[in-house]
Amino acid sequence: MADNVFDPGHLFGHVQDTDHIEIPHEFARETGGKIMLPQPLWSLGDEPLWTCKTGFEPIDKIVQPLELKFTKFMLMEVIAAVIVAFFFIRLANKMAGGDRPKGRMWNMLEAMVVYIRDNVARPAIGAHDADRFLPVLWTLFFFVLMCNLLGLVPWAGSATGALATTGALAMVTFATVVGAGMKKLGVVGFWKAQVPHMDLPLPLAVLLVPMIFAIEFLGLFIKHFVLAVRLLANMMAGHLVLSVIMAFIAASASSMAWWGVMPASVFGAMALSLLELFVAFLQAYIFTFLSALFIGMAVHPH
Question: Which of 62, 107, 136, 220 has its CA 20 to 30 A from that of 191?
């Protein structure tokens, strides 16, 4: 194994979605350190419904086949959703009673909620319209944050390291942007507003306006695609670097260099994990801020 620890397939295997959970081999020697997840809708003989075949290997590896599998990242998403619901349903019930904030947890969560409202939603969308979109922005922020934090738990995994997850989150933002824009401006008015007002002579307008509309139309999709890829790349890159650092320990296990490589790798992984903790909050904030910005651009096109 020591000869293959730096193999790209081996390294990507530690950060990609799987149908099992890896644990120390001592706890599951019979299965090679794997706990297989139940598959009520899929069996080993089933063919994937769709497979990405672009011919570009890195993309084909990131975009996994479409199968009816229950995967590790799905489990992490469920856990993240349950944790967020547990804390915020309790918080909502306490706030509904009209009590003042009590305790560290209540104060911390309320401070984060108020920060998203006052420093993200209202500046990006406007004080008049922002409050209507707060539920979706709060949900995006805390769900992304919890998924990111779960990625720091040993043998767990960050669901935001999969394009399926970040793509679904970006589609939520896209649907909110288009829906809010058409509700505010009307169906025709929203798509008409994609082209900025320009005082052009009629012959020039006939030539340029369709071209600008096509560019803006594609740009609307590209912005949200980049929103998904940006979160994916940042989360996957950090976990991939952690895998490489820890692989140095396995690669040097049969030599005297292990005594120097092991502590350096462990302390390096600890330092990078602290950085990943900061990145977990930062990426949740950036995703939410960009979502709010896109919504603001849709409801206030000028």
Answer: 136
Q: State the pTM of this model.
A: 0.84
- The domain segmentation of the chain, as residue ranges, is 8-18+71-299, 19-70
The one-letter amino acid code at 126 reads G
How far apart are alpha carbons 212 and 165 in whole angstroms? 31
Q: How far apart are CA 51 and CA 13, in angstroms?
A: 18
